[in-house]
Amino acid sequence: MTTRLYSHPIYLEHLTPPGHPERPDRLRAIARVLEDDAFADLVRVEAPEGDEATILFAHPESFVDRIRAAIPEEGLVGIDADTTVSPKSWQAALTAIGAANAAVDDVFTGKADNVFVAARPPGHHAEKTTAMGFCLFNNAAIAARYAQRKYGAERVAIVDWDVHHGNGTQDIFWDDPSVLFCSTHQMPLYPGTGAKDETGAGNIVNAPLSPESGSDLFREAFRARVLPALDNFAPDLIIISAGFDAHHRDPLAQINLTEEDFDWATGQLMDRAARHANNRIVSLLEGGYDLQGLSFSVAAHVKRLMKG
Ligand SMILES: [Zn+2]
Fold this sequence. Notes:
With 308 residues, the chain is an alpha/beta fold. Strands 2-1-5-10-9-6-7-8 form an eight-stranded parallel sheet, with helices on both faces. A two-stranded antiparallel ribbon has the order 3-4. The protein has eight helices and ten strands. Strand 9, helix 7 and strand 10 form a beta-alpha-beta unit. The structure holds zinc ion.
């Protein structure tokens, strides 16, 4: 497999208050583990700045203007109780979108089989008109629409294994059967959505997990709900909302997965991507707040993406 990695120093300049879990050190920890010789064949690319017009694929202009207007010249400004912007947040968010869209370009033009984007801010909580849960714009949703508009992808699947429900992605594609959204997540937990009976136009598949579920129940949810939905849908592209906060070390949740579970889940999605999507996978970092749990899980995920 040819695997690309996108990152950019600007992602370190999106600042959050002291003690906030979604912090620049997350990306420093990921960069450190990916320096290992095991990743010598990983093709590292500096993320391009995104095209602002592509934000409108998932959000109305009035919302985009509201976020832009909130960016301070200095210090931090709260968008909601746990989502903040700093002077460089606009550029960081735009470059996160740029990387996600460039990753779509790569898998459709054959430059890569799959791509991992190590960016922040994350995106899956951002609804059409609401920035929340550390997220400003919904990177995965924008990339899905970008694939449809630029490459004519008819069916895009977004698989979200972040431990929190991807309410934003669900909101954006609620009545759009051209995008399948599958999510495993802890429930009850922030943001409170993601029940099994939230099915949209039949294109939303939620697999909520009780606290302390662990590996077996996670894999069972994947086998019983996510994988059959993917086979049924036969996507042209799989986008992963790759949060690693279901790891047992993570401070924000209690699902207790290990690196091996992320390796396994990655392999399962690669199998489906081989079957339906000419291997195309675009994986976008979402959550993951324990630096060791996060970085070791990313290493397992990327190693699997490279190996097949
Ligand atoms: Zn999360």
